[in-house]
From TrEMBL, chain A:
UniProt name for this protein: Anti-sigma factor NepR domain-containing protein
Domain of life where this protein originates: Bacteria
Native source species: Bradyrhizobium archetypum
Domain Anti-sigma factor NepR residues, every copy: 15-47
TrEMBL record, chain B:
Domain RNA polymerase sigma-70 region per the UniProt entry, residue ranges: 15-77
DNA-binding found in the keyword field: yes
Domain of life: Bacteria
GO biological-process terms attached to the record: DNA-templated transcription initiation
Annotated family: Belongs to the sigma-70 factor family. ECF subfamily.
Name under which the protein is recorded: RNA polymerase sigma factor
SUPFAM superfamilies in alphabetical order: Sigma2 domain of RNA polymerase sigma factors (SSF88946), Sigma3 and sigma4 domains of RNA polymerase sigma factors (SSF88659)
Domain RNA polymerase sigma factor 70 region 4 type: 103-155
Organism: Bradyrhizobium archetypum
Keyword terms, alphabetized: DNA-binding, Sigma factor, Transcription, Transcription regulation
GO MF: DNA binding; sigma factor activity
Length: 62, 182
């Protein structure tokens, strides 16, 4: 393994690795697509009032 | 604008990246999905204030980010406890190549100040421009640039400078990416 130096700017190889790791973590979730619960939620809501009512319900329970 | 079918489709198309953003921010899948649900409800409840033709993903990310921050203030103590326990479990797990590297990365990300973490995720993973990320976070473009730079620099120090010999070669990074079907 190459020696890692911390001089002035970041080592380009390290920056590239961090970028890969960050995107790997993120894209792993993106690839899971849309869970049914969210597809159903958006389909079922008629409009703003229905959504607002669900927010109120939730606040009431908390 | 009214909640048309095409707007519903556009909102739905943003769900995978909203979830990824929420999980990256919170490090907790259940909490992330609660955040996404709340974001969707609030977006639709306030859909009249969405300007047609403006950036829908950026608008949705702004809602989620603000919810996360208000939620974070409420839960701060609870989260700090959870992070302490999480860190302990990490140290007792056996070293297993790509998985361990992923856990180490996640733990390092969680150590960043919240402002830096969200800036890095928005620019480095969600693919927003510095301008969009600044709008989402309600700050200047220069502030976002400096937060991203500080985040990268801190991650680099946490992961690769101290104890750099503990980390495997590049293959482990590729294994994380390749192992997920990418």
């Amino acid at each position: 393994m190459k020696e890692v130096k911390k001089q002035g700017g970041l080592n380009a190889e390290i920056q590239s690795r961090i970028g890969h790791q960050l995107r790997a973590m993120y894209d792993d979730v993106v690839r899971q697509g849309v869970p049914d619960r969210f597809a159903e939620l958006i389909r079922k809501l008629d409009g703003p009032e229905a959504a607002a009512a669900q927010i109120d319900d939730k606040d009431g329970r908390d | 604008m009214p909640l048309t079918d095409s707007l519903r489709d556009d909102i739905l198309a943003s769900v995978p990246s909203l979830r990824a953003f929420a999980i990256s921010l919170s490090g907790n899948g259940d909490r992330a999905d609660d955040l996404v649900q709340e974001t969707l409800l609030r977006a639709i409840a306030n859909i009249d204030s969405f300007q047609p033709g403006s950036n829908l993903p950026a608008w949705l990310f702004t809602i989620l980010r603000n919810l996360f921050r208000s939620d974070y203030r409420k839960r701060r103590r609870e989260v700090e406890d959870a992070e302490g326990n999480y860190a302990k479990t990490l140290k007792t797990q056996p070293a297993q190549g790509a998985h361990l590297e992923f856990e180490e990365f996640r733990a390092a990300l969680d150590k960043l100040p919240q402002d830096q973490r969200e800036a890095l995720i928005l620019v480095g993973a969600s693919g927003f421009s510095y301008e969009d990320a600044a709008a989402i976070c309600g700050c200047a473009v220069g502030t976002i640039k400096s937060r991203v730079n500080r985040a990268r620099s801190k991650l680099s120090a946490l992961l690769y400078v101290e104890g750099a010999e503990d980390f495997g070669p590049d293959e482990t990074v590729r294994a994380v990416i390749g192992g997920n079907g990418g």
